[in-house]
Write a structure and sequence with these properties.
Structural class of chain A: alpha+beta
Number of domains of chain A: 3
CATH class of the largest domain in chain A: Mainly Alpha
Helix content of chain B: 25-40%
Order of helices and strands of chain B: EEEEEHEHEHEHEEEEHEHHH
Helix content of chain A: 40-55%
Shape of chain A: globular
CATH class of the largest domain in chain B: Alpha Beta
Largest sheet of chain A: 4 strands, mixed
Number of helices of chain A: 11
Distance between the termini of chain A: 38 Å
Number of strands of chain B: 13
Strand content of chain B: 15-25%
Bound molecules: flavin-adenine dinucleotide
CATH superfamily of the largest domain in chain A: Butyryl-CoA Dehydrogenase, subunit A, domain 3
Oligomer: heterodimer
CATH architecture of the largest domain in chain B: 3-Layer(aba) Sandwich
Order of helices and strands of chain A: HHHHHHEEEEEEEEHEEHHHH
Strand order of the largest sheet of chain B: 11-10-9-12-8-1-6-7-13
Radius of gyration of chain A: 21 Å
CATH topology of the largest domain in chain A: Butyryl-CoA Dehydrogenase, subunit A, domain 3
Chain lengths: 388, 266
């Protein structure tokens, strides 16, 4: 057993930390207020080659694994960038997964190099307003018309759509009553964000204001057959193969945010003097922070284990789900205690834990809720009856 | 032109000040726990200057560092930035070196590397701030040296530098091999790219010990040190806060100025 990161992974960690450190708390505070996209941050990471972390070398990336992707996103979050910084990078690393795993060589050649260079921004659209976690019921359809497909329907929570050039979109191509299993008959497209056929409505939300999430109204979006990812009818399983890596990097992000908040809280607890002594001298302040630290460490360990399994081609569903569950809990708790440690100032924007508090909450909901993770563990790991 | 850059790993100057620790009896600065040491900031300026010269005029950049095993990380980082080769100088006998015995080992290593037109160093190391090693290297190798430059350029075999003065700078041309120390005004060191990190990952870092360098045991490490630290301590700073009174902001300002003069601060 070896728990040590490789020398290269350590260097990746240090360099991402340094690069993300160029963008200070004020940068993110301003973008959170204005809702402006973090273009400068994104471009800096693109220029230094980080967007291509998991893209194979023959398509212009670095061909590294989910472990490295997790390290990159954890450090971005730990710098204080939070989800505002992680999401733009996340959306260049994760949506291409199905293309990397199932796309044709021609498709990879066309799209992966510009994604790696940061010249093509992506969105990912599965969730629908009327369907929720029960993905196989989705209502957006794609119908073949000669060499094209015509897509119609409504999607919700499509992150990045305001700036995206392309969207990875899951549709139904064979009606649910005509397939043996509900998970069949769905297809995945890597469609151009053709704004004449897709109207994009920004959703006002609790946090991560710099990175948009949207409702999409899709009216006769025409997609060439060449942009069908993998096999027709297998879209759901193609998406599923990318879900464990996503859970792993999501877990890493939650740990990173927790760590950023904890760092702030520890400094504050040492500095802030009340009743004639630093508040951190009180066990009531110190213990929750120490406990949060321990939970973050444990969540990180599970995240790295899941990543290691995935990168070594081993099954990792159990570990990826547990990592996501524990990290979301640990991240939210750490930020909550950080806010509490700051007292009234924790509620003030200027002290930044307030932003992290709004951002980290997302990890218990998306990309999969804690309950659905527990459903998975109960059913698939513990072998109990399916509860839904 | 082939360029050699010398590097030192130092405790991270960005580390929170409360983590600063020294070993008073051993008279050493301790690296703060859980905070990795970093490349001396001025050495990063030297690396950047070397890489820019290489990009403009070709040649090879080799980095050398005398240090513990962990210093390979500093060399790997330099290689990730674009340095072609890194060499670690390491031997038990090199421990507790001062500027003189460090310069001696580095000079021997530079002789062993052999091919170079320019040696770039950081203008000082941020741990002890002595700025003596580069001049020591120049002395031992019989080379001209120019310290604290804000710009370095090549014109054929001539090195043109801008040396920082108190009230401006002077331009100097140096013919043939020389030692130049680079100041932070010179550039903004680049961040390694992911591709650079991966290229560096594949390269080996040779380790040269005392035998490999053929050094004189009496001139290295503590044996070769010409200076002795007689006492090392952290000075204590006692803060005292005084509020200056006044009816109006102007009056408060005037009272503050008077008080500062009384304290001989202005
Ligand atoms: C900021 C943000 C960005 C997002 N970005 C994207 C994106 O880019 N692309 C995309 O496709 N989606 C995105 N999403 C959507 C996200 O993946 C979903 O919100 C998430 O999967 C939950 O689905 P839902 O909102 O439909 O909740 P529902 O499925 O409606 O669930 C509501 C609640 O009921 C619980 N619940 C439902 N069924 C069960 C059950 N059987 N047992 C126990 N509990 C149950 C859930 O856990 C949840 O708490 C984003 C969401 C947010 C908030």
């Amino acid at each position: 057993m070896d728990f040590e990161l490789s020398e290269q992974q350590q260097l990746i960690r240090t360099e991402v930390r340094n690069l993300a450190g160029k963008f200070d708390w004020g940068y993110w505070r301003d973008l959170d207020r204005t809702g402006e996209y973090p273009h400068a941050f994104f471009n800096e990471f693109a220029a230094n080659g980080w967007l291509g972390t998991v893209i194979p070398t023959e398509y212009g990336g670095s061909g590294l694994g989910v472990t490295e992707a997790a390290i990159v996103l954890l450090e971005i979050c730990a710098s204080g960038a939070g989800t505002s910084g992680a999401s733009p990078i996340h959306f260049s690393m994760f949506p291409p997964m199905p293309i990397i795993l199932h796309g044709s060589d021609e498709m990879k050649r066309r799209y992966l190099p510009p994604i790696a260079r940061g010249e093509m921004k992506l969105a990912f659209s599965v969730t629908e307003p009327n369907v929720g976690s029960d993905t196989t019921q989705l209502q957006t359809t794609a119908v073949r018309d000669g060499d094209e497909w015509a897509i119609n329907g409504r999607k919700i929570w499509c992150t990045n759509a305001q700036n995206a050039d392309r969207v990875l979109i899951l549709t139904r191509t064979t009606p649910a009553d005509q397939v043996a299993k509900r998970s069949k008959g769905m297809s995945l497209f890597f469609a151009e964000m053709d704004r004449s056929a897709i109207s994009v409505r920004l959703i006002e939300k609790m946090g991560r204001h710099a990175v948009d999430s949207n409702e999409l109204f899709i009216d006769d979006l025409r997609v060439p057959h060449a942009d069908l990812v993998g096999e027709e009818g297998e879209g759901f399983s193609h998406i599923m193969t990318g879900l464990n890596p996503e859970r792993i990097v999501i877990a890493a992000e939650a740990v990173g945010i927790g760590r950023a908040a904890l760092d702030k809280a520890v400094h504050y607890a040492k500095d802030r003097v009340v009743f004639g002594r630093p508040i951190g001298r009180n066990q009531g302040v110190q213990f929750p922070l120490a406990e949060a630290y321990a939970h973050l460490e444990a969540a990180e360990l599970m995240t790295l284990k899941a990543a290691w399994l995935y990168d070594n081609g081993l099954p990792c569903g159990k570990e990826a789900n547990i990592a996501k569950l524990l990290a979301a809990e640990a991240g939210c708790d750490a930020v909550d205690h950080a806010v509490q440690t700051h007292g009234g100032f924790g509620y003030a924007r200027e002290f930044d834990v307030e932003r992290l508090y709004r951002e980290v909450r997302l990890y218990k909901i998306a990309p999969i809720s804690q309950q659905m993770v527990l459903n998975y563990l109960g059913e698939h790991v513990l072998g109990m009856p399916r509860s839904y | 032109m082939d360029i050699i850059v010398t590097l030192k790993q130092v405790p991270d100057p960005e580390a929170p000040k409360e983590t600063f620790r020294i070993d008073e009896s051993g008279m050493k600065i301790l690296n703060p726990p859980n905070i990795d040491p970093v490349i001396n900031g001025y050495d990063e300026n030297a690396i950047e200057a070397a890489l820019q010269l290489k990009e403009a005029a070709g040649g090879k950049v080799v980095a050398v560092s005398m240090g513990e095993t962990g210093a390979t990380r500093a060399l790997k980082q330099a290689m990730a930035m674009g340095v072609d080769e890194g060499i670690l100088l390491q031997d038990e006998s090199f421990a507790d070196a001062d500027a003189a015995s460090t310069a001696y080992v580095l000079a021997r290593a530079i002789e062993k590397i052999g091919s170079y037109g320019l040696i770039l160093c950081g203008r000082q190391a941020s741990d002890w701030d002595q700025s003596q090693v580069p001049s020591g290297i120049a002395e031992l190798l019989g080379l001209p040296s120019v310290t604290a430059v804000q710009k370095v350029a090549l014109q054929g075999d001539t090195v043109r530098v801008e040396r920082i003065l108190e009230d401006g700078y002077e331009v100097l041309d140096i013919h043939g091999p020389c030692v130049v120390t680079v100041s932070n005004e010179a550039n903004k060191p680049r961040y390694p790219t992911l591709k650079g990190i991966m290229t560096a990952g594949k390269k080996q870092i040779p380790v040269w010990d005392a035998a490999e360098l053929g050094v004189d045991a009496a001139q290295v490490g503590s044996a070769g040190a010409l200076t002795r630290v007689s006492k090392l301590y952290v000075p204590s700073f006692d803060g005292d806060c005084e509020f200056i009174a006044g009816e109006t902001p102007e009056e408060m300002g005037a009272n503050l100025a008077l008080r500062l003069r009384e304290l001989k601060i202005i």
